[in-house]
Amino acid sequence: VRLALPKGHMEKNIFKLLDDAGIKLNITTRGYRPTISIPGFEVKLLKPQNIVEMLNLGSRDIGFTGSDLIAELGATNVTNLLDTGMDKIKLVAAAPEALFKGDEFIGLETVRGTRKLRVATEYTHLTQQWMTKKGFNPENSLLVHSRGATEVFPPEDADIIVDNCATGNTLKANRLLIIDEMIQSTTCIYAHKGLVDAAQENDREAVAKKQAIDKFVTLLKSVLDAYQHAVLEFNAPASSLDEIVKALPAMRRPTIAPLHGDSKWFAVKSAVHKSVLFSLIPIIKEHGGVDIIAFDLKQVVH
Fold first, then answer.
1. Are 13 and 220 in contact (CB under 8 A)?
2. How far is CA 295 from CA 47, 255, 263, in A?
3. Helical spans, DSSP H, in 32-143
4. Cis peptide before 254 (omega within 30 of 0)
5. 220, 41 Cβ separation under 8 angstroms
6. What is the mean pLDDT of the chain?
């Protein structure tokens, strides 16, 4: 299985995900072909943009890249196998504060009669679509292809930028306001569509590859699910046990057992989503629960 791993800003989270799944990489200095602890997998490090292109061509079987790049490069010969939810970004159009009147962007009116409105971006395909939708045309605007650090173009070299935004801090630092949000993106695992199609048609080599890929994806999904959950353990009095259990979420049902030598108390264990801990623990306390412990999970396989 020819696996493509991303270099750059996606690298840290993806490498941690692999490590948490028990998958070991051995990367040599300046090496682009690390070894991996999964038999039958061959790995290459590529830029996320190149991963899209190689998956689309079929020279890579699976790879990690951003859904924004899939859309930008128009890759149609890929299949999304798993959304990791990592590296969340928004693709936004933004402009200097001086080109706003209140909340309204007035850039076209500001430059009309003197020059064309300049729009700088690395996302030329998606930006051109957005410009057409918003009524920008070759008569009144010009698309400038930036190649990094797009946020520094305004105000001298561009009136609008289209760029990815994670926290918005970079925009604020450069005194840029958002005009429009175009798409949201995360890092996903994609496969070459031709491989998936061939496996469905019972091609022997493709079936073997797809089975290995499915196991790989299941392993990573179990870690991603574990990131979202915690095991909650506590002791509860028999008098309020039913009330606590009513409020207690679980994957199926909580595990409940009487404490040794004390029929008035029970030990309760349940795997819960981390988002509910803030509200759930006070409820347990209000109903007499004690000795409350919450701890992380390594993997969750449903």
1. no
2. 36, 16, 26
3. 48-57, 67-73, 107-111, 124-133
4. no
5. no
6. 93
Give the number of C-alpha atoms closer than 13 A to the C-alpha of residue 114, restricted to the C-beta side.
7
| Sign for the pseudo-dihedral over CA of 201, 202, 206, 207 | positive
Q: Which residues contact 201 (CB under 8 A, 6 or more apart)?
A: none
- Distance from C-alpha of 244 to C-alpha of 288, rounded to nearest angstrom: 9
Reported as a single tens digit per residue, the pLDDT across 107-142 is: 888 887 788 999 999 999 999 999 999 888 888 899
Of the candidates 163, 160, 162, 164, which has an alpha carbon nearest to the alpha carbon of residue 140? 160
pTM strictly above 0.85: yes
Encoded tokens for 174: 């450069």
**Residue 297 C-alpha from the chain's centroid:** 20
Query: Mind listing the pLDDT tens digit for each residue in 176-209?
Result: 999 999 999 999 999 999 999 999 999 999 999 9
- H helices within the chain, ranges in order? 11-20, 48-57, 67-73, 107-111, 124-133, 169-173, 193-200, 204-227, 241-247, 277-286
Instruction: Report pLDDT digits (tens) over 92-103.
Output: 999 999 899 888
Residue with tokens 């590529």: 46
Report whether pLDDT(212) > 80: yes
Tokens of 146: 């930036």
Residue 253, classed as helix, strand or coil, is coil
Structure tokens at 213: 């890929």
Residue type, 127: T
